[in-house]
Amino acid sequence: MYDDTAPSCHGGKAELRQAAKAAGLTETIERYAADYPMGPHDQPQSMCPAFGSLRVGLRMRRTATILSGSACCVYGLTFTSHFYGARRTVGYVPFNSESLVTGKLFEDIREAVFKLADPALYDAVVIINLCVPTASGVPLRLLPKEIDGVRIIGIDVPGFGVPTHAEAKDVLAGAMLAYARREAEQGPVQAPRAGRSERPAVALLGEMFPADPVGIAMMLEPMGLAAGPVVPTREWRELYSALACPVAAAIHPFYTASIREFEAAGRAIVGSAPVGHDGTADWLDAIGAAFAVPRAGIDAAKAKVLPAIRGALERAPVKGRITLSGYEGSELLVARLLVESGADVRYVGTACPRTRWSEADRDWLQARGVMVQYRASLEHDLAALKEFRPDLAIGTTPIVQRAKEMAIPALYFTNLISARPLMGIAGAGALAQVVNAALSNTARFDEMRDFFDPGPAQSLADQAIGERAAC
Ligand code: SF4
Description:
Number of helices: 20
Oligomer: single chain
Number of strands: 14
Structural class: alpha/beta
Helix content: 40-55%
Number of domains: 3
CATH class of the largest domain: Alpha Beta
Radius of gyration: 23 Å
Bound molecules: iron/sulfur cluster
Distance between the termini: 37 Å
Shape: globular
Strand order of the largest sheet: 2-1-3-5-4
CATH architecture of the largest domain: 3-Layer(aba) Sandwich
Largest sheet: 5 strands, mixed
């Protein structure tokens, strides 16, 4: 069942991929390569991808999560999940070289799953194979699919197969949707907690600020439509309601496995999102067309919301040159909103891959002279910082650090941009507020730079770019 030598996480990615294939995971590795294409950079620098799957599981009610991987990886992942406020225990099945190569680890996982699968406590138990157990072929597919009514979901989420933590969210969401779709095909399933919607609904793909689905629901109402569940869901039965929606909106465009499940259920997919004036107009048109809503209904929905969005954008203009990068999957949407607010956006980098669901956003941005970089690496983002010398840099932690060294005001994308509404009227005002507050810091940064001597600070950033490029 196993190789006689355990692959180590110090091996190269190619070696680990090869080991996983030799251990019987060819199909999984090839599916990941198709779902989450690499390039131009083979893997953006970000946290352990498995964090995405772990976070999705930890946020669900009545769901237990077990990690199978090296102790150092598990330590890092549990530390990060508690740092981000997970109030759940993360299960761990430890191993050593012997239990890995003899198959004892799989037996230990199986035993742990049986102990944990209590239907009074859980709807589902998720087991995540990290790099080493995946490369060793620990066969989670051989676990029972269900124990006393508790679903057992085993997934492989290796760093050498899933490039970003964003896409790892899709690995678990897709596996859960596949499971729920099979259940729904076999017979009646649990109804939503709040009862079934009387109006046809749109499932929303991608984690978003809690007020956004509410705003989307208000925008859909004149067309006789409702907002469905957000996927990844917060509880198991929402998966059925999501799959029952005739249309899924790929608000975040990287949910490839989840979209495959919606399409297998016969659902239509609509890309982009109701962001800013133009984005909202196009999105309402696309949703209306997907539901065959009469023109008058679509026009009524647009007339209700578009003038208000225009007004909000005009009341809160953003003036300044901005570069933006992140790994959430919403970077292009944020850039659109900034451009519509009047900002001079020069560069958008996203760690996520190019998919057809963000093509409209990409076209719109490029038509306005914005450089769009998919699978952006730190080197791409730093080079943009150096080339465009923005008045504000929005990005990941290392970008924010470099920007500050260059006396450029900076905002951390995940904490400060993702944590506020983006859609419709609420999005138009909220983003401008935080961006303008940061832009107003320019004079303070100039003062600090003059005080501390500009020379070394600038050379530090340039040196960092040179060092990374040489790696
Ligand atoms: S599971 Fe893989 S990618 Fe994640 S921390 Fe461990 S070695 Fe790195």
